[in-house]
Amino acid sequence: MTRAVLIDDSGFMRRVIKDILSQNSIEVVAEAENGFEGIKKVIELKPDVVLLDIEMPVLTGLDTLSLIMKKCPTPVVMFSSLTKEGADVTMEALKLGAIDFLQKPKTSLDVYALKDQLVDKIKTSAKAKVKDSSKEIKIQKKVKTLREVSHGQPNRICVIGCSTGGPKALTQIFEKMEYLNQSIFIVQHMPAFFTKTLAKRLNDITPFIVKEAEDKEEIKNGVVYLAPGDNHMEIVEHNGYKIISLNKDPALHGCRPAVDYLFKSAASIFKEKLLACVLTGMGKDGLDGSQWVKNQKGLVYVESEETCTIYGMPKQVAERNLADSILPIDSFAKEINKFLG
């Protein structure tokens, strides 16, 4: 049974969440109404996972998370509000070491509508690998000195799919990339407000442009396009130009955006001039798309188990012998640049 510590200043919220978790093979071994109490419980009981509210008195959720990672690194799922400010803080939490996050409902009773998502994130995060992020080298914001790239549209591209642990993995890739002559497309499982914030954060650490994709946008060299939350992203041809198409078709594998949508559409157009990368995340999104890429003579690289936060999506691809290469996350920047030229 998964063992969890619940840290939230609302007693009623804690009771509702505990009730839901206890009915789904998750034991809440301790509760705390503030960060100081929570840290003590985590150190004492060493749970499998912590559910932590971002907004709390006495000690903020971010400060609590930082201390947990320093004193007793443990998988943490954050409760975040669906606002721009909430998205900014959530991105900071993921940078500090949180595994995942869940949008916090407006009322305690609304938690029941999210019970399946809550249980899934708790159980998935409990299996994640955790490191003390405070010991990692701080990423410096890079000055935007855009390198001259050829005009027109790319003749080869890279597509990337990721889920749990993805923001950190993407950061590790793009902080090492000094140039981009072609185009890159990313699907990260994440709600709308949060993808915009993620795009901005990645844009800040690269010398090229990272942006949220727009519907009917013409694809350009030297740009990284991130699928907006709650939208599938595809690459299509229209009047001789390659453009981005966004749609709200039903979720695939419970996800919108879904990696398979991007991979299949890109493979149909770029064929052997396509590199598909499957990074950390739970589930099988990207598996069918990877098969499509291979059918069109493209390449598929997956992240290795030792560097994945969750070795789920890459494992599905690797076990079906669809991976041309299995790489640690710090090798992707070099390999992507080598492929794109």
Unreliable parts: none
Coarse shape: elongated
- H/I helix tally: 11
Rg for CA atoms: 20 Å
Summarize the biggest pleated sheet: 7 strands, parallel
Catalytic activity: [protein]-L-glutamate 5-O-methyl ester + H2O = L-glutamyl-[protein] + methanol + H(+); L-glutaminyl-[protein] + H2O = L-glutamyl-[protein] + NH4(+)
Domain Response regulatory: 3-119
Family: Belongs to the CheB family.
Subcellular location: Cytoplasm
Which helices and strands, and how do they pair?
Layout lengths: L1 E6 L3 H12 L3 E7 L2 H11 L3 E5 L7 H11 L4 E5 L3 H13 L3 E4 L11 H12 L30 E6 L3 H9 L8 E6 L3 H13 L4 E4 L10 E4 L5 E7 L2 E7 L11 H12 L3 E5 L8 H9 L3 E5 L9 H7 L5 E3 L4 H9 L1
Parallel strand pairs: 1-2, 1-3, 3-4, 4-5, 6-7, 6-12, 7-9, 8-9, 12-13, 13-14
Antiparallel strand pairs: 10-11
Helix pairs in contact: 2-3, 3-4, 4-7, 8-9
What does this structure look like?
The protein is α/β, with parallel strands linked by helices and 341 residues long. It has 2 domains: 2-132, Rossmann fold; 157-340, Rossmann fold (3-Layer(aba) Sandwich). The chain is 35% helix and 22% strand. It contains 11 helices and 14 strands. A 7-stranded parallel beta sheet has the order 8-9-7-6-12-13-14, with helices on both faces. Helix 9 links the parallel strand 12 (274-278) and strand 13 (299-303). Helix 2 (35-45) runs parallel beside helix 3, helix 3 runs parallel beside helix 4 (84-96) and helix 4 (84-96) crosses helix 7 (192-204).
